[in-house]
Prior knowledge:
alpha+beta
Amino acid sequence: xxxxxxxxxxxxGSRGLGPLQPNQALAxxxxxxxxxxxxxxxxxxxxxxxxxxxxxxxxxxxxxxxMGAGAENxxxxxxxxxxxxxxxxxSAGHRRNLLGRGYTQYGLGRSGDIWVLKLAARx
Length: 123
């Protein structure tokens, strides 16, 4: 994940934004959502009846992060962290999340070719 952190923070830095720090609670929540989507065969920010909550805020809370402001990016089909990041950078909505001015922390999860990135101002 070192390359992901440096690549993501380089992208943010090139836009005048500060770096994001990895957060274990966000990583747990991201990993749980990636695994749930993979196991139950869906791809969505909504996880109706999911074991970790229905929304990204609920999943963060279950993972141990009572986030204030936050966002969630999901991707499917990429084989590497770098490819997932590139797809988010190329998507206007995902890029907007990556460039959130108030975010200071992130967590990344992966199950097969499903990726989840959770961003938060604080936990």
